[in-house]
Amino acid sequence: MRTRIVALLLTVIAALVMFPERAEAIKNGVADANAHPYVGELLFYVPSDPDPRFNDPGAWFTCSGTLVSPTIVVTAGHCTSDIGHSGAVGSDTGGNDVWISFAETPDFSILPPSSGFAPDNNAGRYTAWAAALDASAQWHRATAYHHPAFDAAAFFEHDLGVLVLDEPVNLSQYGEVPSQGLLDSLYAANKRQLYTAVGYGLEGSGPRRSIGGDTRRRADLRLVDLNGVGGIGRGTAAKFSNNAATGGTCFGDSGGPIFVAGTTTLVAVNSFALNDNCAGTTGAYRIDQEDDLAFLATFGITPGS
Question: Taking the model in full, what pTM does it have?
């Protein structure tokens, strides 16, 4: 569910589907009103992916993520894979062509229009965009890592990623990672417990249109099932409600947090949708499992830290 700038989105089967606009956000939610200033929008460059407007490869995407310390952002694994290394293809992890803004409405106006570089100067677009982002006080450059067992062909099984910021972002409060098995305990205790999804994705989507995006919004969800979504992600994915009454998530919200409502505790990251209008459910990757907490601990992030 990462969103390609202007053109494409990732579905649960990892296929690419054309859309006329750039990505999606919280669907039927409300403006965040700075309730979650530690949630930001990622913008990143994947040099190996095609952009239909250019002859040579190289595409830009957006996702969402949560700052859990001055230098560490938690997001989805599919938002941190294949990211460029200073514009070039490198290893599958450790790319530094990723930036994040914690503004309610990030400023994309600093980026020269792609039309000025198409169709044969994709490298020039990368150079211009990277320079503009590096010069902006709002956008923070980072290096991206994903869960060691992440597999793009089955991303929903280990869909966890981390950004390490080049410079700290000092806030009065940050998101917190959960204790092991927290979702199991919460679901057993109260099946009507609310959770809050936050992200920068579209506010509406369909086969011929997309609405909104690139503004931080939030929506309250309920946890429906811990055994995957439609047979996908059994044991790792959690199914949350996604309907007109309570709102939900959509393309561009990938990597965005799902908090225990009223707290800063992050129990899952938005991972996938099952259809192009984001109806029915939110497929979230739970991060309260032993292997996920062990991965986060390698970056100094532990429950209560």
Answer: 0.89
